[in-house]
Amino acid sequence: MRPRPHRARGRSAAAALVLAGCIAAGLSAPIATDAAWVDAEVASSGTFSAVTVTSPGAVRCVQSGLLVPAIVGWNAAPAGGNLTGYRWTLVGAANRSGTLPATATSVSLAPSLVELGSSVFTLYAVGPGGWERAATNTATIGFVSVALGLTSSCAA
């Protein structure tokens, strides 16, 4: 039994249309958008600027010892540093993080009820749009605590 000729012609015509559509899609020009580096409105102003976030500099140990929390400090941010706040992380034996206002110059880290070991403290300056810049160094924070917060240590 032979296939009917009109089915074969229909399949050939459909394949030719699909092929022509693919070729036309590949040759068409890209769609113009306003999202460009050389937008006429911006280009005419002549001002391009990038926001940079000032590093918080070096962190230092302010306090640690028997029955006291570990306190880590840093210098106040310079004026014009595009600072909206700080973010800090403590990673290791203790895994914690937090945020601080732009006016902060220290953070107090108390041990949990049961905590033993050391963790790395990292400070980040946060700028507009969530851009971050890390401090130039980290600090190692150690805790020995069994319900009393026995001791804390800090080494930057």
Short note summarizing the structure:
With 156 residues, this protein is of the alpha+beta class. It contains two helices and nine strands, in the order ααβββββββββ. A hairpin with a 3-residue loop joins strand 3 and strand 4 (96-101).
Secondary-structure map with pairings?
Blueprint: H1 5-27, H2 40-45, E1 60-66, E2 68-73, E3 85-92, E4 96-101, E5 106-109, E6 114-126, E7 132-134, E8 139-146, E9 151-155
Antiparallel strand pairs: 1-2, 1-9, 2-5, 3-4, 3-6, 6-7, 6-8, 8-9
Characterization of the model:
- This protein has 156 residues and is an alpha+beta fold.
- The protein contains 2 helices and 9 strands; from the N terminus they run ααβββββββββ.
- The chain has helices at 5-27, 40-45; strands at residues 60-66, 68-73, 85-92, 96-101, 106-109, 114-126, 132-134, 139-146, 151-155.
- The chain is elongated, with a radius of gyration of 31 Å.
- The model has no long low-confidence stretch (mean pLDDT 80).
N- and C-termini, Cα separation:
88 Å
> What is the structural class?
alpha+beta
Low-confidence segments, ≥5 residues, pLDDT <50? Answer: none
**Total strand count, please?**
9
The portion of residues assigned to helices is 10-25%
Give the count of helical stretches.
2
Oligomeric form of this entry? single chain
Sheet-strand content, in percent, reads 35-45%
What string gives the helices and strands in order? HHEEEEEEEEE
Largest sheet composition: 9 strands, antiparallel
**What's the alpha carbon Rg, rounded to whole Å?**
31 Å
Q: For the residues shown, what is the average pLDDT? A: 80
What general form does the structure show? Answer: elongated
